[in-house]
Write a structure and sequence with these properties.
heterodimer; A: about 110 residues; alpha+beta; 3-stranded mixed beta sheet; 3-stranded antiparallel beta sheet; 2 helices; about 35% strand; elongated; B: about 270 residues; alpha/beta; 9-stranded mixed beta sheet; about 30% helix; about 20% strand; globular
Chain lengths: ~110, ~270
């Protein structure tokens, strides 16, 4: 489960930022996870609780916003929404799709003390 | 946590030794006392909660290491390939056959990733090629940091080819850039033709799919055309080559791809 490694990475960012931004405790973390990224938000939630125990983010609330998946359909020559990588174009039902949005995973902002 | 390189992978071992020696003091003796009686109470009127915008990519740390590895490869004109597949697809046999087939014209080394054992690195060394074994412990994938350390030990020659054989896993390695020029997905015909749509992340991230063990096709109900169609659904640009590392069928086309891709690495050398 690579979500554990990713969540440890999130905690590292929170700890690094604590010095840079001068805070002692993280109360809320807002993540943006694209629908076409390679992580499962529920797995991130599960790992987050375990990884942050006894750290500056112990008990922090994790808010996850899903960013919609988008692709360029070379057949329809227009941008379309898809929610999975194996989805066809919703207009032409084809697969000549180039993913343009929805693969990102970012920590957007924090509420801190 | 190691501050030199952010190293916190306590279980990772390279050629059986620890990744490096900075004594990261993770004693982890916190006995989970949890006696904090909701200390939020102390803050009445004094709470200094504030918002901090950080806009940081979750993969940023890995990507920094991958970027450094990519520089390492580019500076030396080295072609690095990240071989990804399920366990048992025949990656190691594909590599030993490839090394035997091309050792008179290419200098090739291997970084082997497995949770445990040095069996695969030993199989590579039997061909005469140098190999470094990375054991990830419980880890399900190689990351950019592990490859950086493996390169310290491997020290590949300029203009050579480095094969990185990832942990057998069609899920987790998809998201971790190692600094390679290309991910190469290996799918054996004993696995079922719908793997590309069952595990789309991996086939989306790969530039080449090697359909392996094609010598077994007469004994299986594997629809090659369907499999290639599925792969192109998740990645219209993926190239597909059909090979058998044991019979040698199709291997020449894979060698040609390697030669051509290596030439591009040499041209791109900065």
């Amino acid at each position: 489960m690579h979500e554990m490694a990713l969540t440890e990475g999130i905690l590292l960012v929170l700890q690094d930022q604590a010095k840079a931004q001068n805070y002692k405790r993280v109360k809320t973390v807002w993540l943006e996870i694209g629908e076409l990224s390679h992580v499962d938000p529920d797995a991130i939630r599960f790992c987050f609780e375990a990884v942050t125990r006894d750290t500056i983010a112990d008990g922090a609330v994790l808010e996850i916003d899903r960013l919609p998946g988008m692709a360029w359909c070379h057949h329809c020559t227009q941008a379309v929404n898809i929610s999975k990588l194996a989805d066809p174009c919703p207009i032409c039902d084809g697969y000549q799709l180039q993913v343009t949005n929805g693969q990102d995973m970012r920590i957007r902002e924090l509420e801190v003390d | 946590m190691c501050t030199t390189c952010g190293c916190g992978q306590g279980e990772t071992k390279i050629n059986g030794g620890t990744v490096h020696t900075h004594e990261h003091g993770h004693t982890h003796k916190h006995g989970h006392t949890h006696e904090h009686g909701h200390s939020h109470a102390h803050a009445s009127g004094l709470s200094q909660s504030r918002m901090v915008q950080i806009e940081t990519d979750i993969m940023a740390k890995n990507d920094e290491y991958a970027h450094a590895n990519r520089h390492y490869f580019n500076d030396r004109g080295i072609l690095a390939l990240n071989l990804v597949s399920s366990p048992g697809s025949g990656k190691t046999t594909l590599l030993t056959t490839t090394i035997d087939g091309l050792k008179n014209e290419l200098d090739m080394t291997v970084i082997e990733g497995d949770q445990q054992t040095a069996n695969d690195a030993n199989r590579i060394r039997e061909t005469g090629a140098r190999a470094v074994q990375v054991n990830t412990g419980k880890g399900c994938h190689l990351d950019g940091h592990m490859i950086g350390h493996a390169l310290e030990t491997l020290a590949p020659k300029p203009a050579s080819v480095v094969f990185i054989e990832n942990v057998g896993n069609l899920v987790c390695p998809a998201g971790f850039d190692l600094g390679e020029a290309h991910k190469v997905a290996i799918l054996s015909v004993t696995e079922g033709e719908d793997k590309p749509i069952k595990y789309p992340d991996m086939f989306h991230a790969s530039d080449l799919m090697l359909l392996n063990k094609i010598d077994l096709l007469p004994y299986l109900n594997f629809d090659v055309e369907k499999c290639i169609e599925y792969a192109r659904r998740v990645n219209p640009k993926i190239k597909v080559l059909q090979v058998s590392a044991t019979s040698g069928e199709g291997m020449e086309s894979w060698y040609q791809w390697l030669r051509a891709t290596r030439q591009i690495s040499l041209i791109n050398q900065v």
